[in-house]
Backbone:
């Protein structure tokens, strides 16, 4: 049976708000990084390291990673509960969906840990 | 014209099949899809479909015509037929009882869930609960729904989670009572819908809007429910 036990906030409203707020944060972060490349044409690795090692960018990048993880979890959880259901997988549906959720959680955790390690190496 | 009709009789057929029939249409006038079905039924009385008012009011003859849901009685053949061909199927996503007749139980269950009636816990006045013309106006575009299920059965979110997602028709009615100045159960109604499925499975693809035979806009009503939740819940 498809249930909401694994949704981020167990509430559609909180998931809805989290997804929108994190989308805005990610859009601002993307604009910030893309804008930097526009105003610094030809910038190389050294300049990029300097830009990202400022305390403000360290915090912003960390916030962006956290937003990405939350945003991705809600989206991927929704896809799983839409498609991985008894209609397609019969009795195995719950097992398949659980395995899918665990795999997504592991992948997102790995990305988060890796990204945080890369970002804070610059501190 | 080539007409392909979905046929299934659970008493005799193991699986559904499409029956192809050639029909000669009158050259001097257009006809509704329901008239065409009546012609087919005259040839083969075993063909089953629901119909009643034949003027788009009762909502009985919702079906899928060349891939788009609508009411057969108010859909001209010329509007849906493509290259002289018309494919008629039952409303998608609901169990088929026979031919074009579907079992609407799941649809009605979701409708029942939103408590589609006025709830007011204050003592009733001597005559009636009054509404200003402005308050009454807020119900326009909501109360006209005839529950034909064209919208809900065109919604992928309903196909995927019919037991949890209320569906556009039910949500339109949910908002009809949320928007009613005489209703006092706003908080309870919103709380009932706050889980990740009931309202929030709507992805705003607007299939419901494009098929509604009454030109209603369930997507807008769903957006308003979400806004009310944000205002009430944060």
Residues:
């Amino acid at each position: 049976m498809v249930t909401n036990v694994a949704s981020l906030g167990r509430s559609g409203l909180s998931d809805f708000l989290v997804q929108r707020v994190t989308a805005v944060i990610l859009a601002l972060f993307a604009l910030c990084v893309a804008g930097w490349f526009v105003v610094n044409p030809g910038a190389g690795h050294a300049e990029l390291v300097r830009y990202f090692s400022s305390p403000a960018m360290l915090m912003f990048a960390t916030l962006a990673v956290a937003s990405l993880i939350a945003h991705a979890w809600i989206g991927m959880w929704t896809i799983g509960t839409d498609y991985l259901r008894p209609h397609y997988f019969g009795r195995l549906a719950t097992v398949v969906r659980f395995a899918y959720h665990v795999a997504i959680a592991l992948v997102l955790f790995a990305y988060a840990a890796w990204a945080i390690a890369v970002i804070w190496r610059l501190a | 014209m080539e007409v392909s009709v979905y046929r299934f009789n659970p008493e005799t057929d193991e699986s559904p099949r499409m029956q192809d029939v050639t029909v000669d249409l009158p050259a001097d006038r257009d006809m509704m899809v329901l008239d065409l079905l009546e012609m087919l039924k005259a040839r083969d009385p075993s063909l089953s479909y629901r119909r009643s008012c034949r003027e788009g009011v009762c909502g009985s003859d919702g079906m899928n015509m060349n891939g788009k849901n609508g009411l057969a009685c108010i859909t001209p053949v010329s509007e849906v037929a493509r290259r002289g061909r018309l494919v008629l199927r039952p409303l998608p996503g609901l169990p088929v009882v026979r031919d074009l007749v579907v079992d609407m139980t799941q649809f009605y269950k979701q409708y029942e869930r939103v408590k589609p009636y006025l709830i007011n816990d204050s003592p009733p006045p001597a005559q009636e609960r009054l509404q200003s013309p402005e308050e009454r106006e807020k119900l326009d575009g909501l109360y006209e729904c005839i529950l034909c299920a064209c919208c809900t059965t065109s919604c992928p979110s309903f196909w995927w989670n019919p037991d949890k997602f209320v569906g556009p028709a039910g949500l339109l009615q949910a908002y009809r009572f949320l928007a009613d100045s005489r209703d006092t159960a706003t908080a309870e109604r919103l709380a009932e819908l706050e889980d990740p499925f009931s309202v929030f499975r709507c992805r705003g693809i607007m299939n419901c809007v494009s098929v509604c035979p009454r030109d209603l806009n369930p997507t807008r009503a769903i957006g308003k429910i979400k806004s009310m939740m944000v205002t009430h819940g944060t």
